[in-house]
Amino acid sequence: MSHFRWLAIFLGAWLLGLLLLPEPSSGQDTTSSKQTKMRVLVPQKRCKISVDGKVIEGKAADVREFTAPELKKDKKEYEVTVTWRTNNYTRFYRSKKVAPKPGGVVEVDLRESDPTNPDHIEIRFVPTPNDVVRRMCQLAKVSKDDVVFDLGCGDGRMVLIALDEFKAKRGVGIDLDPQRIKESKENAERMKLTDKVEFREGDVLKIKDLSEASVVLLYMGDDVNLRLRPILQKTLKPGSRIVSHRFGMGDWKPDRSETFEAADGDEYTIHLWTIK
Ligand SMILES: C[S@@+](CC[C@H](N)C(=O)[O-])C[C@H]1O[C@@H](n2cnc3c(N)ncnc32)[C@H](O)[C@@H]1O
Fold first, then answer.
1. How far is the CA of 107 from the centre of ligand 1 (A)?
2. 181 pocket-lining for ligand 1 (C-beta < 6 Å)
3. Of 22, 39, 212, 258, whose Cβ has the fewest other Cβ atoms within 10 Å?
């Protein structure tokens, strides 16, 4: 018999075996009976779910059901994270830790934000044109006595212009993205302003104290501004100014807003609040 015929017989017998062999009985200790199933209630139909960083594929739905990946060796809990966009710039992250339930279903309700573990928010880098930054500094009346902060500083241009052209005393820029901090530091070197400026990597939503700032410049988003508002109101000294490019602060009405056409031909709006 040819080799091919033997191979065909062997494959046929193997397939038949697969079809005829009984399923393992429920009493047996199979892997699937040890696995945890998850039922995740999500804040938005179209969102991404990950468990311990592993993305779970699935169709958009209000409730997503799946088998959790194996729990990592040294871990006692899973971390379930949902992320979604509220607009082109803004991504939300909401997480919860849950214990495994081998052979059972764990329900994870992520529909509402948990005040004890607030959502993380990230805004995409979009620079403010330099002439708009100048208008922001003018609106804030930046001068030699000011310490200027930019929360979400991008390439550092806001604080660098405040130092270079408005002669601010000191500048601090904070950004989540190490690449942006690197660019900010390079720009400070190029402009010979390193002795007056500090660029730090960090999450602005974790800032607890802004009392060092006399001017805060912002180009973030409505959600981030609202989250920053209590810290700004509580920790800035009276007379400190906040100027935000485009976005407001909920029902905290600005003292002044300006809308103008910039050099690129687009229309821009900036808002000023002064701490009373
Ligand atoms: C719209 S850009 C503004 C950049 C700069 N302020 C400007 O106007 O040219 C927002 C910046 O905030 C940073 N960012 C976003 N979410 C952040 C967060 N939670 N904490 C710190 N920085 C953040 C981004 O990396 C990005 O560089």
1. 34
2. no
3. 22
Query: Pairing mode, if any, of strands 170-175 and 63-67?
Result: unpaired
Mutate to test the pocket of ligand 1, among 137, 157, 176, 183 (most ligand atoms within 8 A of CB): 176
Specify the pLDDT at position 25: 35
Measured distance CA(118)–CA(108) in Å, rounded: 16
180 lines ligand 1 (CB under 6 A): yes
- For ligand 1, whether the C-beta of 223 sits within 6 Å is no
- Report pLDDT for 23: 40
Output DSSP code: residue 140: H
The structure tokens 């609202």 sit at 226
Segments of the chain with pLDDT less than 70: 1-33
pTM of the complete model: 0.85
Choosing among 3.40.50.980, 3.40.50.150, 3.30.450.150, 3.30.2160.10, the CATH entry for 130-274 is 3.40.50.150
How far, in Å, is the centroid of ligand 1 from the Cα of 217? 11
For 180, residues 6+ apart whose C-beta sits below 8 A from its C-beta are 125, 153, 154, 155, 156
Relative to the CA of 153, which ligand 1 atom is closest? 6
- Quick: pLDDT tens for 108-158: 999 999 999 999 999 999 999 999 999 999 999 999 999 999 999 999 999
Q: Which CATH number fits domain 33-123: 1.10.150, 2.170.130, 3.90.550, 2.60.40?
A: 2.60.40
The structural domains of the chain, with segments of one domain joined by +, span 33-123, 130-274
Q: Nearest 5 degrees, angle CA 38-CA 40-CA 44?
A: 155
